[in-house]
Amino acid sequence: MIYRLITSIVRRDSISRIKLFFWLFLIGTSQTAQASFTDSLTIGNAKALALGHAVTADPPGIDSIHFNPAGLARLKGRQLHIKGVYGIFETNYDMGEYGEYTQGLIDEINELRNPGSNGVIPPEDEAYFYDEALNSKSEVEGPTVMLPGGMVDMPFAGGVMGGASYSPPGSNYTFATNVYTPMMSGYHRAEDDPGRFFQQRGAFTLLTYFSPSVGIEISDELQVGVALNFSYAGMGLELPAREPHWLLWQYGSPWFQDNFCLEEGVSNDVIGVNLCHTVSPYQTYADLKVEADTPMVFSYNVGLLWSPEPWLTLGLSYNSAVKNDLEGEWEFPIDPFFNTVLIDAMSGSAWPTFQAATAAIGMPLPGVQETMDQGNGGDVKIRYELPQHVSAGLSVQLTSDWKYNVDVKWTEWSVFSDIQIIFDRNISLLMLGSIADKLLNKGRNGIEPNAVRYQLGLQDVTYWGMGTEYQLTEQLALRAGFENRPSAVPDDEPNAFIPINDGVLYSVGFAYEFESENTLDGSIGYMSSKSHYPACSAKLGNACNPNDVAYSTYMGQDLRSEVTFWLFEVMYSRHF
After folding, report:
1. Does 14 fall in a domain?
2. Per-residue pLDDT averaged across 290-302, rounded?
3. Which DSSP state fits 195?
4. Where in the sequence is the domain holding 59, given as residue range(s)?
5. What whole-number distance in Å separates Cα of residue 256 and Cα of residue 251?
């Protein structure tokens, strides 16, 4: 039906094909694109970037392995390519004033601690109320990658990759393999950066090092292809932890101190625990560090190309999901002062009774030894799934000099929403957090005594891109592209931990073919994304609901993020 509709609008003359260009443009710009997140940004193909990644029906050489394996059937003889990519990234947060909820909580506690203060915090309490993130700025220092030896902070974002293909003389088959990165994401902040509670260091890597693939030319009009991908997968995270939760604020109130602590600071006669310490809600109490990887995960890509007319090609491509089951090591050292607070609380005469009671209902409390052992670290398993991806596109040769491509794509980002981190034993802080999660939020935060589910809350997305190519001379072609890349985060569930949201990718590039039929491709891409999270709006970041006991590290604070990046890509393809 689609083919009949197109051919009813376009005959075989160039003027009608130009009319088709504007018809397709209107279809593309009228789509409600949901999100694209990081799709295709790290592949490093200069042609794909220059055409707004709208290359499903116009696959780019050996990188067809990723974009549409059927495109391999168009490669004849022996070929190879070498490509380089360089990126300039900036990720900044503006952390502003408190909203009404948090400011009201501060004023309430201050009045309890200092009656008649009229909102003025006395000098002796400034340390208790001090928040290093208030009215501050955070910026990412540079990229971080996860490699077999662990996380590595890089001086710049870039790399070199390559691949090769071979089609026997007179054969309808083309064989190829390629080295590329379906996902390479990560960054690091300075040790004193106020945004480090989002994460100080973090990295996801999926590096395909072997991708045996075949493209089959069934006829002049129809080609199919399949690629098998063997990849290294790794994840690293360094996350300082603080939690300005409502309970910690109450812990510092005079009422709490008067009722649950004796003046001499020993165990209270009534409850049998020592709760005499005053803990600032903005204190960093621990630092979670995990690094895990696996040398091999498997995935596959399949594709189809159909050219019912010499000037028209339709493409369809599918990239399978990638299930990652990683193994590595963890550390979770507790701040010395906070460690003392926990151990003193557990040293009272009533704590064993509390432990027995909570264990009987499946919510065990930690003991002194478990708290002391937490800093020693151990083994960890991390499980998550990278999403499957479908793309459909068409490429129209409008005139002998002008070509237009458009793609519509879908990615199942919802499967990436839960990252499971499983430790080799119960951890003191997680045991406490698990009880709070079950009592306050029915376990929705995913905290267990020996595990945590890092919940990103993403959704499945549909988006589009388009590109055009003008053959300036027999050797030189100019390209331009546009790709709508809105956020993978639902509008009704903002996530301040993910800085990249709605944005548009603009790109330009060229292709120069030498007399030897070797080709040099180059491209530049630019994208900017800005987000605003008013106080209490983002469950992950600045939520104010006391039932959410995890990830509200900037509770009730106004947050703004801005991400900008430039991509510079070059690729040299040659016959050999």
Report:
1. yes
2. 97
3. G
4. 2-245+281-332+377-417+456-575
5. 6
As a whole number of Å, the CA-based R_g of the chain is 28
Distance CA 421, CA 329 (A): 11
Q: What is the pLDDT of residues 82-138, one digit of tens each?
A: 999 999 989 999 999 999 999 999 999 899 888 888 889 999 999 999 999 999 999
Kindly state whether residue 348 falls inside one of the protein's structural domains.
Answer: no
Check which CATH number belongs to the domain holding 396 and give it: 2.40.160.60
In this predicted structure, the answer to whether residue 276 has a pLDDT above a threshold of 60 is yes
Total domains in the chain come to 1
Q: Does some domain include residue 502?
A: yes
* Confidence category of residue 549, pLDDT binned at 50, 70, 90: low
The more confident residue out of 51 and 445 is: 51
- Give kind and range of the element (H or E) at residue 47: helix 46-50
CA distance 73 to 60: 12
Structure tokens at 153: 């902070």
| pLDDT, tens digit, 9 for 90 and up, residues 132-160 | 999 999 999 999 999 999 999 998 888 89
The three-state secondary structure class of 63 is helix
pLDDT for 407? 97
Whose tokens are 């949201």? That residue is 501
Residue 515 forms part of a structural domain: yes
Instruction: Quote the tokens at residue 518.
Output: 């070797």
Strands 173-178 and 180-188: unpaired
